[in-house]
Design goal:
The chain is α/β, with parallel strands linked by helices. The protein is built from 11 helices and 12 strands. The strands form 3 sheets. The chain has a 7-stranded mixed β-sheet, sandwiched between helices. Strands 7-6-12 form a 3-stranded antiparallel β-sheet, with no helix packed on it. Strands 10-11 form a two-stranded antiparallel ribbon.
Length: about 300
């Protein structure tokens, strides 16, 4: 049986570079908030096409701290897709705001822009589109709704590093974007890690303060912040991967296309839909356990 995720195979080609990165960190004398983090933040911001990248402890913190930095809290509502990983909802509840579910588009499994307006109230302060399974949400339509109303748009891009919508990468499609670098992501660390990407100078400054105990100067704490800092080792390991991300994403797309072609016409199975204006970085086929043998036989016969 092919494992869902094989960390050994995925990292085998990088073994020497990982060893070099580890050695570089161990001899630098910096383990937290040092040159590797600064370098990765610049490199990932450039990759996304944004001004700022703020490294944090994980993807959930990236969501919650961004909402908090924006001043969203108790009494406020944040629109979220009805189908997503729980972190999207927890990021809202962690700051005391209320997550309001919006139904998904059955073709893409992403938040349906046509259903957003019916959930808007005077308490709506943000919309959190989730680029689920690596496919960007319909951000052009979502921004058309949010922008005139001054509603903050936070991309949950935890599964969509390098995916594009109308030629722009995730991270630059809303007011800010939260990324996870959990090891199973297409850009994954060797442990928990995350980041926020934005063009907003003030938001970036507030996030850098909040992630570091509410401090920009040692022992001076302006607000009650948290400890959510991307560490040097994870940043160094991520730097070994970022230059390969586009090639890896291209390979994922090619393999996904091969599977989609091989699975056409198998009963009522519906292969994932990718709009012409977007590129994806993951793919998902939802099948029952009983059908796995049938699909495996079909793919073998199709030479996939």
């Amino acid at each position: 049986m092919i494992p869902f995720f094989d960390i050994h195979a995925g990292h085998a080609e990088l073994a020497n570079e990982f060893t070099e990165a580890f050695s570089r960190v161990m001899t630098s004398g910096h383990v937290i908030m040092g040159p590797e983090v600064s370098a990765f933040e610049k490199e990932f911001a450039t990759y996304c096409g944004a001004k700022h990248c703020i490294g944090v402890g994980n993807g959930l913190d990236a969501l919650a701290l961004t909402l908090r930095a924006r001043g969203i809290g108790p009494g406020d509502e944040v629109l979220v897709p009805s189908q997503t990983f729980i972190a999207s909802w927890l990021g809202v509840s962690m700051v005391g705001a209320t997550p309001v579910p919006v139904e998904i588009d059955p073709a893409t499994y992403l938040i349906d822009p046509a259903r957003i307006k019916e959930k808007l109230t005077s308490k709506t302060k943000a919309i959190m589109p989730v680029h689920l399974y690596g496919l960007p949400a319909a951000m052009d339509k979502i921004n058309e709704i949010a922008r005139p109303l001054g509603i903050f748009v936070l991309e949950d891009a935890a599964q969509a590093h390098g995916a594009t919508h109308h030629g722009k990468r995730t991270g630059t499609l809303g007011n800010a974007a939260a990324f996870s670098f959990y090891p199973t992501k297409n850009l994954g660390a060797m442990g928990d890690a995350g980041a926020v990407v934005t063009d907003d100078d003030q938001l970036a400054a507030d996030l850098r303060m909040l992630r570091n105990y509410g401090s920009t100067q040692k022992y001076i704490h302006e607000v009650a912040g948290v400890n959510s800092r991307l560490d040097e080792l994870q940043a160094a390991l991520l730097r070994t991967k970022i230059g390969r991300l586009d090639a890896w994403n291209d390979k994922r797309r090619a393999l996904a296309a091969r599977y989609s072609e091989g699975l056409k016409g198998v009963g009522d199975l519906r292969v994932p839909f990718v709009p012409a204006d977007s590129t994806h970085v993951f793919h998902l086929y939802v099948v029952s356990t009983q059908r796995r043998a049938e699909l495996s036989a079909h793919l073998t016969a199709a030479g996939v």
